[in-house]
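FW: tagging you since you asked about this chain on Friday. Here's the raw sequence from the shared folder, copied in full. Didn't touch anything.
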Amino acid sequence: MRKMMAISVASSLLGYAAVYFIFFSKPAPAPEPEQPAVATEPAEPVVLAQVIDVTDLDPLLSPPPAPTGGVPFDTADASETLTVTAPAPIPLAAD
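HL: got it, structure written out here
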């Protein structure tokens, strides 16, 4: 019983000390970063008129038709040919 009482008192003292140091201790001041001696001028902002669109998505939107013939697809009657029509291209967005 005395051993359990001693452990309980020691635990409560350690808990009180931990709470005291957590809530009442003052953190060390953070060092201020050094300012550069010479300030450089900021770069000129990019204007939207100077931006160039370099992506060409038209070949991806309307790929060329695939060939219809080939070794595994050859038929005995070569007069029958399939015609593949490409879908209409997607119109460009208005400005």
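FW: Helices lie at 2-24, 58-61.
HL: agreed, and The CA atoms of residues 68 and 82 lie 7 Å apart.
FW: great, closing this out.
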